[in-house]
Design a protein that fits this description.
Length: about 180
């Protein structure tokens, strides 16, 4: 049976902190646009207040979430327990992209461990919180974080990562501009 909450309680904060993986969902307004669902790890998620969260977003092959947020702001986070007790937690909200050139960058980024390849911070104001049973989620044993993306960014260096972002992260697969497209 699902339950709804108005804020991220201490118990829900503890559940989030215990998870090594979360998923981010977003979508464009167009009915023919693609819904995006991205897995995230690397200890990049933070609870900023009972109704505000953020995560460090690393450079990747696309930038769908940021494009969707710029268009409509809708975002959903999902956390699943892969060990007992079973639980699924969803955070529904309105998000925005914070770039390194933003005035809020320094105060927000100081809350995270520095990770090579960081391109932006996604911040969301959470409007609704839902838990559900999670009985259909399989049990998995955590082995550790993959270092492939971090190693790739370290090897490319800051300038190489910026060049990659200019080639691959300026528009979504549906042609929506991302906030990175506004940078010089």
């Amino acid at each position: 049976m699902s339950k709804f909450f108005d804020c991220i309680t201490k118990e829900l904060q503890d559940f989030i902190a215990a998870q090594h993986l979360f998923f981010v969902g977003s979508a464009p307004l167009s009915p023919t646009g693609h819904v995006n669902l991205s897995p995230k790890g690397q200890d990049c998620f933070r609870i900023l207040s009972p109704n505000r969260v953020g995560y460090v977003d690393l450079t990747g092959s696309g930038n769908e979430t940021s494009a969707h947020l710029q268009e409509n702001g809708r975002i959903t986070f999902m956390f699943c327990a892969f060990q007992e007790p079973a639980c699924i937690l969803r955070l529904y909200g309105q998000g925005t992209t914070i770039l390194p050139s933003s005035p809020e960058w320094d105060s927000l980024y100081s809350l995270f461990l520095p990770i090579p390849g960081t391109r932006q911070i996604i911040v969301a104001d959470i409007e609704k919180i839902q838990t559900s049973c999670g009985f259909g989620v399989p049990l998995y044993e955590y082995q550790g974080q993959r270092q492939t993306l971090v190693n790739w960014a370290s090897k490319k260096g800051e300038e190489g990562v910026r060049e990659y972002q200019q080639k691959k992260n300026l528009v979504s697969i549906d042609g929506l501009a991302t906030p990175l497209s506004k940078l010089p």
